[in-house]
Design a protein that fits this description.
Blueprint: H1 2-5, H2 13-18, H3 22-53, H4 57-60, H5 64-82, H6 85-90, H7 92-111, H8 118-138, E1 139-148, E2 155-161, H9 167-178, E3 185-190, E4 204-207, H10 212-215, E5 217-223, H11 228-238, E6 245-253, H12 258-262, E7 267-273, H13 277-291, E8 303-309, H14 323-331, E9 333-337, H15 352-359, H16 368-379, H17 387-395, E10 398-401, H18 406-414, E11 422-428, H19 431-442, E12 449-455
Parallel strand pairs: 7-8, 7-11, 8-9, 9-10, 11-12
Antiparallel strand pairs: 1-2, 1-6, 2-5, 3-4, 3-6
Helix pairs in contact: 3-5, 5-7, 7-8, 18-19
């Protein structure tokens, strides 16, 4: 059961039977792992206590069944320790490698530990087989364009078109990607491994930051860090402009019901921090379209989106190219910029640094970090040429500078409602941001029916 709960595939038998998301099953997997670890310790302590009382400890510690039992306990401890959140955040690759390697190595160790556990080991091997086959089925090879988000040095923009260059694959792939919904995520890696090693390769989760059926492509936004994202940045730098990179994507994972469930709510507040907007923005766009296709309509007035970013250029990817939809997206959106100048009392909300950008035709002031950003952009496909347009699009937003006024944003959402109104609050970003939003929403929780959803990246 523990291994069955760990199946990371849309075709998981438990997901199909229970109609729950992988995230829910993964929480149960973590809980059951802690229970099993505690039972391992109790099992080992009681047996060692018995060996001491029977005066056979020295002899039994040299027997293979006891040695294997102790090794299994240590291995399971290592699996549980590296799965702690602070270890995963510090080095995800260490967590993933130890988890997969030791979880697999435990099976032969337990098989030879005692004979009566062997039937469960065989059952677990069947689960492994199901896992391998379903992950292969869930994988798709795609050709994607990879570039930096204009004006940034560490944000990757990955776009997977719905049409394939190969006519034989075009319809099939487009049909599959069109079914992906707002709020879901995929696992992505470069297409290098063979068939039998691909399911075991380290993959990173990326939230689908677009509406495939509306935009004609799947967009993934990622901050460049160690591992796959750094490798993708390097591969993009070495490739020719406008060329594609072969990738393997697996999924989608996550709930598909968010958009439909939001419709009955009279007020909806979205809050995002940084790349957390990749989860929030598609839901925000989808809700606006479902409420009314026209910007400025009365039904849209109950929706708000607050986005906290380091620089206004980080918002460039979020604005749709179609002017009518772009106007609708910006209508209910407020952006807080936490770095740089701008709070100098201008009525138009444009700060001194931004006016200097306009005078210099969109060129950024080149600090050491920004020099590296611009140099990297020139090397990556699509870099540099779109920088000015990205900054200009970002400037059309309702931009504020400094710390976000989360209390004001939450109070504005709840103001004018009564006990019959239902309020939904979605937040995705750093834990500190989610904690602050939760605290502000908590002031209203006894007065209103509230659906609070905090989306967190990672496992």
């Amino acid at each position: 059961m523990h291994y069955l709960l760990a199946l990371k595939t849309p075709y998981s038998p438990l997901q199909i039977l229970t109609r729950t998301s992988w995230e829910t099953l993964n929480n149960l997997h973590q809980l059951l792992g802690r229970v099993i670890t505690v039972l391992f310790y109790i099992h080992g302590i009681l047996y060692l206590n018995f060996f001491v009382q029977a005066h056979v400890l020295g002899k039994r510690l040299r027997d293979w069944d006891v040695v294997l039992g102790l090794v299994a306990t240590v291995a399971f401890t290592a699996v549980g320790t590296t799965a702690l959140s602070w270890v995963r955040k510090r080095n995800y690759r260490v967590f993933y490698t130890v988890h997969v390697t030791l979880a697999t190595a435990l099976l032969p160790i337990l098989y030879f530990h005692v004979h009566h556990i062997r039937v469960f080991v065989w059952e677990t091997l069947v689960v492994y087989g199901i896992h391998f086959l379903t992950r292969v089925l869930a994988e798709k090879r795609v050709d994607a364009t990879v570039s930096l988000v204009p004006g940034t040095s560490n944000l990757l923009d990955i776009i997977i078109p719905l049409s394939s260059s190969k006519p034989s694959q075009r319809g099939q792939k487009a049909k599959g990607l069109l079914k992906w919904e707002a709020g879901q995520h995929v696992y992505l890696s470069q297409h290098k491994s063979g068939l039998f090693t691909r399911p075991l390769k380290t993959k990173n989760p990326f939230t689908i930051a677009s509406l495939p059926s509306e935009d004609g492509h799947v967009r993934l936004i990622a901050r460049i860090m160690d591992g796959n994202t750094a490798a993708l940045a390097t591969a993009a730098k070495c490739s020719k402009p406008d060329s594609t990179i072969p990738l393997m994507i697996e999924g989608p994972y996550g709930l598909t019901t968010h958009s439909a469930n939001l419709l009955p709510y009279s007020r909806v507040l979205f809050v995002a921090g940084g790349v957390g907007a990749s989860f929030v923005l598609p839901l925000y766009r989808s809700l606006l379209k479902d409420l009314s296709p026209s910007a400025g309509s009365r039904r849209r007035q109950g929706v708000r989106f607050g986005w906290v970013v380091r620089s206004v250029v980080e918002t460039a990817w979020a604005i749709p190219k179609e002017e009518s939809e772009a106007k609708g997206v910006k209508e209910r959106m407020t952006v807080w910029v936490t770095r740089g100048e701008g709070a100098d009392g201008n009525a138009d909300g444009v700060g001194r640094s931004e006016r200097e950008e306009v005078a210099a035709r969109g060129k950024l002031e080149r600090s050491d970090e920004e020099e590296e950003s611009i140099e990297m952009e020139r090397l990556l496909p699509g870099g540099g040429a779109e920088e000015n347009s990205g900054v200009q699009r970002g400037r059309e937003l309702d931009v504020k500078y400094g710390r976000p006024d989360l209390r004001g944003l939450v109070n504005e959402t709840f103001a004018g409602t009564d006990e019959k109104d239902k309020i939904a609050v979605f937040v995705c970003g750093p834990k500190g941001l989610a904690r602050d939003v939760r605290k502000e929403v908590g002031r209203w929780i006894e007065k209103r029916e509230v659906w609070f959803w905090s989306e967190e990246f990672g496992l």
